[in-house]
Every structure is written in structure tokens, then in C-alpha cells.
Amino acid sequence: MANNGLIVQFFDHKLPNDGKLWKELAANAAKLKTDGVTAVWLPPAYKGIAGKDDTGYDVYDLYDLGEFNQKGSVRTKYGTKKEYIDAIEELHKKGINVYADVAINHKYGADKVEKISAAEFNEHSHYQMIGDNKTICGFTGFNFPARKGKYSDFEWNWRHFNGIDWNQDKMRERLLKNGKEVDADYLMGADIDFNNRDVYEELVRWAVWYVKTTNVDGFRLDAVKDIPSSFYRDFLFKVREMTNKELFSVGEYMHWSEEVLNSYLRQIDSGSSLLDTPLHYNFYNCSKAHGDYDLRRIFDGTLVQTNPVKAVTFVEDHNTEMGQVYESWVEDWFKPSAYAIILLREAGYPSVFYGDYNGIPSDKYKGFKSVLDKLMKLRKNKAYGVQHDYIDDRDCIGWTREGDAEHKDSGLAVVISDGKGGTKRMYIGKQFAGAHFSDALGNAKYNIKIDSEGWGDFYVNRSAVAVWVRKEPKQSNK
Question: Is the N or the C terminus of the chain less surrounded, counting Cβ atoms within 10 Å?
Fold first, then answer.
């Protein structure tokens, strides 16, 4: 029996640097399975410039998964290599796939300084050169002395980068190019030159090693807009071929336009998906409008509307959380409704954010554990069958799922309001004629009965979501 797919992003940027995440993950494998989770997205597992204090995005050594004493520690922020692999094994025992976060567009923490010819560029307009080429001291030499060539003897040098952000000689942070074609999508650190053949071959070797070493099932690709689409097109094809694994992949392309996202998907042409950032921004804008938003437009301009098979839907992730570079935090009042949208509809591959589930103590944010537990189990057990949409009112929308024969007692109705609430007359199927339904979230207090033609009057309270499922009243013994 096939259940709905569901990803959990099992981290946020503000986790404590205690090295316990991999152990926590292994301990929670059984609960994740019970909640209907089919895949877990894990943070970068390799060593960053800050060692045990690094989130993994300021990449130093891709081959150090918490094994070597580099950058002040053996473990990473999340634990050791053994703990990482053990956690993946526990998840696999429960039938849960693992997607590894891959941030490969830059490197930090070089082992040696190299003298290179470079020109300074405007940090706000990467095509604008400031002055002429000159010799500088750049952090571009990586030979990983603590690892001593284990797993790979490849050494990185200035030829493998097309931009850096630090001139050691002048002790100042600047955007400098080493004479190659200017990359307008320069991000940070020593920016990798993906047009270099040696770089391509080394990254393929690393990815094949990584998959075979850890047995991960796919990748979340970081900042794909800053990497040529041709690189990932060839890279994913080659790694899948060499590992003989399907390797699901989802890219992060932070842009509000689905046209831009779909254009990238056509260019990469590799069976990859993208995070549906336009849908996230719609959720954010709706939450900020406090009722002055047309809910009929909630799917306008989204990937899940135009290319649902390629859409990984989400409400928040580590980039959109408070204090991050793409901060666009969906307000609490709308968050249950947003999660109902991504979890209980047929289109899209939803991802639940760790911070929304477990809270973010440093921000005094408690999260929505109880609500998400219910919604995730509703996705697992009830959200099946033909979908009927009633996206026809600016303040109150809804849909139903008829259920299917594979999932006992499946089928549900969802109503969402960003205003005063209301009632939606919706068809849920003649098979439910005479059945009673109640709100699984407990927001709507009165049960309803489906009529002989399969229609019901489903209602929702002000600025809330109601999820109606079959629940027959207890029979009296009298």
C-alpha cells in the first residue's frame, strides 16, 4: 500500500552546537515513521571553517564528515561520522529515505595563501570592475593536511576558483576576481569555477564516494541559481550512473517567479525538483495581510500550480527563519492553514520544518508540534482520492478528498479562512451519504452530516483551518 510522500527538514540554523543531532535523529526514527514521514532532509554533514560551531554551509572539507581533527574539532556541529551513518541506517530500517544537503559552490578556511592576479569588483554589481589587475594574497590553497590524502588526494588552488572575498595582503574583505570571466552570481568565500574540468571530475568523485559511504538516497542542492545549470545537469546524470541509484534531488532557487524556476528546470533537464519558493512567499504575504488577502490567489504564480510533479512545497526552512538572509517568516496565525495546504492536497511533495515542529528556543518560538502531529497523520491516513476544489471566495476556500479503497476510512474536507470564517458546501462523495464528520483539529465544535448526494456544509471559524474527517457518534447503550 503506497502512502503519501512527506519530507521533514530535520534541522534549523539555530540548533545548539552540542553535536547531538545525529543521535536525536536515530532516536526519533520510529516516531517519524509513525507520523508518516517518508524522507528526511539533513544538514551539510561535512566540516566547515568553524569546525563544531559551523552549520556546514561555510564548507572547508567535503570528505570530513566528523572524522578528522580539523578546524578545532573532530565532530561537526551535528556529531561524528559514525553517528551520522548510524542514524541513516536507523532511518532506512524504518523505510525512511535520507536526502543530504549539498553546498558545493564555495570553500572557506584555506590551508595556505597563494599569490594571484586579481581585480577588485563592486560587491553590489559584480560586473563592475574597480581598478586594474594586481597581485594579491588570496586564501585559495586547500590541501587538508590533517586528512593526509585519505579518500582523495585532490588539492584545490587558485585555478579552481573564479572569485574570492578576502585579500590577505590588505587584511580586508573585498570581492576579487582572478582574471576569469566574471561570475555575476558570486555568493561568498572562494567561489568555485564550475567550468573547470578538474573541478567537475573531483566533485563527481566526491559525490560517488559520499553516496557509497553514507548510503543516502538523494540530495538537497544549495543555492542552485549560483551554479551553472549545465553543471548539475551533467553532474546528476553521472553520479546516478556511477552509483546505480535514482538519487532524488531538489534544488533551492530563491526566487518569487515560477517562470524563472520552470526555466531552470528545463535547462537542467535531469529529473530534479525545486523548492516552491513562490508558494512560500504567497503564504508569507497572506499572513502579513491579516485578512486583506484574496485566498483565491494563494496558488497563483506557484510551481505547485504550473509544474506540480517538480514542486517540493514548504512553509518555512532554515533560510526563511527569523534572522536569516531570506527571512520571510510566516506569521503564527496562518501557519496551521499553510501546513494544511501543503500536507492535505494531492499536488506537491511537502516538507515540514524542524523549527516549526520542535520550536526555536533561542527565538522563544514554541512551534506547532501538536498541530503538525495531527496534520502529518491526516496526510498519512486520510488525504487520498479524487480532489474537489472550492477556491471560490476571497476569504474562505476549501477542498475535499474522496478517499480510496487502499486506505481505510480515508477522505477529508478542508476549509480555510483568513477572515470571519464561514461555511462551504462541498461534495465529498456519495459513499459518505449519511455519515457524520467532525473537525480533527478541534477548531469547529459541532459535527455535521453528509446528505444523500454526498454533499456537506463544512464550516470554519475566524482566521483558522478546519479538517473534517468521518467520525460517527457513539451509540447509546440505552
Answer: C
Average pLDDT score over residue span 283-296: 97
What distance in Å separates the CA atoms of residue 458 and residue 426, rounded to the nearest whole number?
Answer: 7
> pLDDT tens digits, residue range 227-252?
999 999 999 999 999 999 999 999 99
Return the DSSP state at 86.
Answer: H
Please give the positions annotated as active site.
222, 252
How confident is the model at residue 271, as a pLDDT?
A: 83
DSSP 3-state of 142: strand
| Grid cell locating 226 | 549560483
pLDDT band at 188 (very low <50, low <70, confident <90, very high): low
Q: What angle do CA 108, 114, 120 make, to 5 degrees?
A: 75
* Cα distance between residue 289 and residue 192, in whole Å: 41
Write the burial class of residue 47 (CB in 10 Å: 0-12 exposed, 13-18 middle, 19+ buried): buried
Q: How far apart are CA 358 and CA 417, in angstroms?
A: 26
Residue type present at position 463: S
Q: Tell me the pLDDT tens digit for each residue of 111-148.
A: 998 877 555 544 544 444 445 566 666 788 999 999 99
Q: Of 29, 99, 37, whose CA–CA distance to 380 is shortest?
A: 37
Residue carrying the nine cell digits 588552488: 157
pTM score: 0.92
Whether residue 471 is predicted with pLDDT greater than 60 in this model: the reply is yes
Do the beta carbons of residue 105 and residue 162 sit within 8 Å? no
Instruction: Extract the runs of DSSP E, i.e. beta strands, from 178-227.
Output: 190-192, 218-221
Helix, strand, coil percentages (3-state) for the chain, rounded to 5, are 30, 30, 45
Q: Determine how many CB atoms are found less than 10 A away from the CB of residue 478.
A: 3
According to DSSP, residue 244 is labeled: T
3-class DSSP assignment, residue 238: helix
What's at 223, amino acid-wise?
Answer: A
Q: What is the dihedral of CA 106, 111, 113, 116, to 10 degrees?
A: -40
Nearest to 287 by CA among 57, 465, 21, 43: 465
Residue (of 298, 328, 332, 290) closest to 418 by Cα position: 290
CA neighbours closer than 13 Å in the CB half-sphere of residue 188: 10
Q: Which amino acid is at 147?
A: R
Three-class DSSP category at 40: strand
Distance CA 187, CA 227 (A): 10
Q: Indicate whether 166 pLDDT > 70.
A: no
